[in-house]
Amino acid sequence: xxxxxxxxxxxxxxxxxxxxxxxxxxxxxxxxxxxxxxxxxxxxxxxxxxxxxxxxxxxxxxxxxxxxxxxxxxxxxxxxxxx
Length: 83
Description:
Blueprint: E1 5-12, E2 18-28, E3 35-45, E4 56-61, E5 69-74, H1 76-82
Parallel strand pairs: 3-5
Antiparallel strand pairs: 1-2, 1-4, 2-3, 4-5
Subunit structure: Part of the 30S ribosomal subunit.
GO cellular component, one term: cytosolic small ribosomal subunit
Family: Belongs to the universal ribosomal protein uS17 family.
C-alpha cells in the first residue's frame, strides 16, 4: 500500500529536527452542500532543520519516531517534479 503524502504549511519549527505542519482539507457538507474547511496539525521529521515557519512542504507517512511524530518531510524538488 502506498504511503500517504500531504501538503501543508509549517506553523512551528521550535523543536530540533521537528516541524509542525498545518494541513487543510476541503469537502462538501453532506446535508448543507456547502464547502467546509478542516485543518489538522501533523508533527513531521525534518532532518536538516531547513524549513521555517510559512514554508509550504510535502510530508509522507513514516515509522513512529516519537509519541507524536509519524510523518517525514519529503524533498520539495522531487515532489514538484512528480506533480
